Amino acid sequence: MAEAILDMQERLRQRIGRPSRVRSIAIRFTEDEARELEDVASAQGTTVREWAREFLLREARRDDADALFTELVATRMLMVNLFKPLITGKPVSPEWVTEVMAAVRKEKRKAAQEVRRQYSEENAGGR
Questions:
Q1: In a domain, 101, yes or no
Q2: Can you tell me the mean pLDDT for 102-111?
Q3: Do 57 and 96 share a domain, yes or no?
Q4: How many helices (H) and strands (E) does the chain have?
Q5: Number of domains in the chain
Q6: DSSP assignment of 47-86
Q7: CB neighbour class for 39 (10 Å; exposed up to 12, middle 13-18, buried from 19)
């Protein structure tokens, strides 16, 4: 019932200035998969159709350069974290290296976003 209400609200919402949506793509799911998608969409306050549309378009438009840039930033983070103790002559254990790698893996996306933001601010200021 909640799905029907959300669907009706979505249909009634007028999108001024956007092209009409005239094509559809059908995908079949198992009952469990469909429930999983419904739960995710509902948690985000939208319909499965709209959630899936946004997700698919976001993935299709994703730039592979973003992944490459993120990995480049991760490599820089790893090098900085590993070189510092080596330069200062501190011993580095295999466990510590594993911890650093896990931390880099966890923080690399946020760090890449921060680097992009810094470059955006620099470019905006230089105009």
A1: yes
A2: 96
A3: no
A4: 5, 0
A5: 2
A6: -HHHHHHHHHHHHHH--HHHHHHHHHHHHHHHHHHHHHHH
A7: exposed
What is the tens place of the pLDDT at every residue in 29-58?
999 999 999 999 999 999 999 999 999 998
CA gap 89, 63 in Å, rounded: 41
Length of the chain: 127
Q: Is 21 exposed, middle or buried (0-12, 13-18, 19+ CB in 10 A)?
A: exposed
DSSP letter for 18, please: S
Tell me what pLDDT residue 5 has.
59
Q: Is the pLDDT of residue 9 over 70?
A: no
Which has more confidence, 12 or 96?
96
The range of the structural domain enclosing residue 48 comes to 28-62
